[in-house]
Each structure stands twice: as structure tokens, then as C-alpha cells.
Amino acid sequence: MKLTTITNVSLDGVMQGLGGPDEDRRGGFERGGWALPLFDDEGAAFVYEVYQRADAFLFGRRTYEIFAGYWGVMADSVNPIAAALNTRPKYVASTTLTDPQWADTTVLSGDVAAAVGELKAKPGGELQVHGSGNLVRWLLDNHMVDEITLLTYPVVIGQGTRLFPATGPDAALELVESQSTPSGVMIQVYRPTGRPQYATATAD
After folding, report:
1. Predicted local confidence at residue 67, as pLDDT
2. For residue 203, is pLDDT > 90?
3. Closest Cα partner for 3 from 191, 176, 133, 193?
4. C-alpha dihedral sign at 99, 102, 105, 111
5. Residue 67 near residue 85, CB atoms below 8 Å
6. In whole angstroms, what is the distance from residue 171 CA to residue 167 CA?
7. Are the CB atoms for 160 and 11 separated by under 8 Å?
């Protein structure tokens, strides 16, 4: 399976608490719910199509618990996101989650790199990672991500957890798809291509 990450971020890279004011208040975050006012029909259609492509989902613990508490209680919903999440395998990279209540969930608590490698080796379309910032950064650092989808919203949040840290590994990306929605959300799909090339000093 191809491992893809799908992340909603503000223009300043914040990914925390996009869905609602009380979704994630870690660190005193008070600006939750910033994405929904800009989530228009075209953006929704794109996201619905993404979820339908998934053969399985991989989560970090915090995102898994948020999704389980929201989408997991919509087992009979016709919502395309709920339908995909409730009918396909879910994997959680966690050393603290011991008794997941969401059906068809497997906890990856041992060698996560080996477990993810085994999942990627299975036949199928996409192993999708939604949200899960710490996990996404770890997967990128370990060169396990095949494709990155960013939905960048035209808003500066000014606080909160960002997708990429202030310092960390570098990566070159190839843009393979780009579009914008009427509300100004930029949807861009990238493939990692190794390390960036840097200019070298030249003699006058």
C-alpha cells in the first residue's frame, strides 16, 4: 500500500484544533474550529474522494481518540468519511492505548517501523494518515511517506501546534497536483524526492 498523509493546516502551519473549539486545547490553545468556516463544497468533495480511496488508516493515539469519539459513533451514517472509517481497518501507533473501543482497530505498540513496513508491503491502494502530527513527522523522518496532501487554509492562527517543527530534517518535494477551492483553500499533493539541493558559493 502507498502511505499517504492528509493534513489540514493554516497559512502559518498550525494543525491543532481545526474542527471545533474544544477539539484540542493542549497548551492553552484557544483558537479551535478555524477550518470549518472555510470548508466549502468543493473542499468537501475532494476530502470525500480521498477517504474513499483508503484501504486502511493509520493514526497517532490523540487523533485516533478524537476520530473515534466523533466518527466512530456514526456507524450507520451515510457520510462518506464516517462510512470509510467505520468499515476499513484502523491501526494506531501507541504505547499507551491498550483497549481500543472502535471496531477493527489494531494497536501498533512494538516496533512501529517494522509494523508500518509490513502494512506498506501489503497489496492495496492507500494506507492513509489523517492528522496525527507527531506520527507524520516521525514517518517523514524515517522516509516512509510516499505522498503528502496539504489543505492550506487562508487564515493565520498565531498559536498552536504546527505540522513542521522550527528545526528538523530537510526534504525536497515534487508537486504532483494543485487546486484551490472557492473559499481559498489550497490543495496540494507532493511526493518526497530525497534531500533538497542547495546553492553553492561561486567565485566572482
Report:
1. 93
2. no
3. 191
4. negative
5. yes
6. 12
7. no
The four Cα atoms 73, 74, 76, 77 give a dihedral, to 10 degrees, of 170
Distance set, CA 120 to CA 12, 58, 108, 133, 174 (Å): 31, 11, 14, 19, 21
Nearest-angstrom CA–CA distance, 102 and 70: 11
* Cut 0.85: pTM above it: yes
Between the two ends of the chain, the Cα-to-Cα distance in Å is 50
For residues 91 and 119, the answer to whether their CB atoms sit within 8 Å is yes
